Amino acid sequence: MAVPEIPIPGARGYPMVGLGTFTIFGQRGAGDEVEQAVKTAIDIGYRSIDCAWVYSNEESVGRGIKAKIDDGTVKREDLFITTKLWDTCHRPAIVRESCEKSLKALGCGYIDLYLMHWPFGFKEGDDLFPKDENGKVLFSDHDFVDTYKAMEPLVADGLVKALGLSNFNHKQVDRVLQIAKVPVTNMQIEIHPYLSNKKLIDYCRSKGITITAYAPLGNPTRTWAGTDEPVVFDEPKLQAIAKAKGKTVAQVCLRFLIQRNINVIPKSVTPSRIKENFQIFDFELSEEEMKTIWSLDRNLRFYGESIKRREEISNKTPLQHQQQNTRCKNTKDEYSTRRKRDTRHVNIKHKRLHINRRDQWATGADFGRPFVTQVANGVVILDCVRTTLSLLQLPRGLEERTIVV
Ligand SMILES: NC(=O)c1ccc[n+]([C@@H]2O[C@H](COP(=O)([O-])OP(=O)(O)OC[C@H]3O[C@@H](n4cnc5c(N)ncnc54)[C@H](OP(=O)(O)O)[C@@H]3O)[C@@H](O)[C@H]2O)c1
Question: Which atom of ligand 1 is nearest to the CA of 268?
C-alpha cells in the first residue's frame, strides 16, 4: 500500500505513518524487541522510523534496518529515518559528535530528519538525566538558538538531509526562525484526541513547518500515568466511532490525525499492533466524526513533565507522595485567591493549569506558590520550572529573566 507523504525540503517525502521507538522509562521494547519491531514494520510497509539518542536503542534500530536492506526488502533511500539531538548535547561544539554517534549506531549513512529534542539542555556528560545530590535536574545554559546554528552545517556536510524541532513553543520556534539559514522543516509534538495542539500547529504551518504527532494514541502504557488519568482508549465516543467503522480505537486516533494532515509515529513492538496501526488508509472519518473527536480536546498532556515526574517517583516513598499531594491542593487554593488580585498571576495560573492533572499537583507543589513569588521577583527556580517553561508558552520576557539557582 502506498503511504501518502509530506514534502520535506532537502529530504525524500516523509511517509505519514512511521514506527515510534521510544522505549525508556520501563516501557516494553528494549534491544532485540525493537530490532524485531523494525523488521516487522518494514515488512508490513513502514518506511519511516522515529528514533532518538535518548531512547538508547539506536543500535537495535540500526540492526533491524540493516537486516531489511541486506535481505533486499528495501534500499536505504526508500527509508525516512528521524532521530533527535539529546538535551545533554546542546553545547554547539559537541553537536556534530552527537549526530555522528547516532549515525554510527543507526548505521544508515545519513539521517533524513534531525530534530532538536527539547528547547533546553541538560548538564553535559554520559548521564542522560543528570541530577544533583538532592535529585534535582541539572540543566545547562546553552541557548537552543546556538545549538540550532551548530546543527545547520550537518546538512551541508551530508550527515543530515533536513532539520526540525521538537517540543518547542511558538516563541521558541520564532527565535530559531529568526536566525535559521537551514529551514526548520518539521516540528514533532504531542498530539492525540485529548490534546489538539491546534494553535501551535497553525502557527508552525503559517511558517511552512510540517507537523508530526508523537504519542498519537495517548501512550496507553506509559509507566508514569496517574491512576485517575483518562485513557484515550477508554473514551466511549472513540469506541463508538471505531465500532461504526469496523476499526479499532487506535486506528481511529491515527486516522483523525492523518485527516488533519499530521504525520503519526505510533510506537509498538507487538506485531499485530504494528500491522493494525498501518491499516489506516482504507477508511475515512466523516465530518461529523471528526467534529466529535475534536470535541474531546481538553489540552491534556501526557508528556513534558515525565522527566521530573520520574524523578519524583524514584525519590519518594508513597507517604511523601501523599503529603505532597495534600500540600498541592493548598497551593491550588492559593492560586485561586491570587487570581482575583493579579492578572499576571492569573495568566501563569492558567498556563499551569492547562498541563495539570491531579497527579501532577505533586509537581505543582514544588513550584506552586514559590514559583509565583519568584516570577513576581523576576527569578524562577529553573530546575523545577524550565521543563514546564518550554511547554507553558510563557512570554519570552519571562524566560529571559530566569536565573539558574
Ligand atoms: N519528541 C518527543 O519528545 C517524543 C516524546 C514521546 C514520544 N516520541 C516518539 O513518538 C512515538 C510514539 O509515542 P509514544 O510511544 O509515547 O506513544 P503511543 O505511540 O501513543 O503509544 C505507544 C504505546 O501504545 C501501545 N500500542 C501501540 N499500538 C497499539 C494498538 N494498536 N492497540 C493498543 N495498544 C497499542 C504500545 O504498546 P506495545 O509496544 O507493547 O505494543 C506502546 O506502549 C515514540 O515511540 C517516539 O518515537 C517523541
Answer: 39
Of 173, 177, 206, the closest CA to residue 189 belongs to 173
Strand partners, 189: 213
Grid coordinates of 290: 471528526
How many angstroms separate the CA atoms of 103 and 89, rounded? Answer: 15
CATH 3.40.50.150 fits 5-294, yes or no: no
Q: What are phi and psi of 195, to 5 degrees?
A: -145, 95
Specify the pTM: 0.80
Q: Is 194 in the pocket of ligand 1 (CB under 6 A)?
A: no
Q: Is the CB of 22 within 6 Å of ligand 1? A: yes
Using the mean position of ligand 1's atoms as its centre, give its distance from the Cα of residue 217 in Å. 7
CATH 3.20.20.100 range(s) for the chain read 5-294
Please, which residues have CB within 8 angstroms of residue 127's CB and are 6 or more apart in sequence? 88
Encode the chain (405 residues) as per-residue pLDDT tens digits: 789 999 999 999 999 999 999 987 767 777 789 999 999 999 999 999 999 999 999 999 999 999 999 999 999 999 999 999 999 999 999 999 999 999 999 999 999 999 999 999 999 999 999 999 999 999 999 999 999 999 999 999 999 999 999 999 999 999 999 999 999 999 999 999 999 999 999 999 999 999 999 999 999 887 777 777 889 999 999 999 999 999 999 999 999 999 999 999 999 999 999 999 999 999 999 999 999 999 999 999 988 654 444 444 444 433 333 333 333 333 333 333 333 333 233 233 333 322 233 323 223 333 343 344 444 444 443 333 333 443 343 333 344 333 222
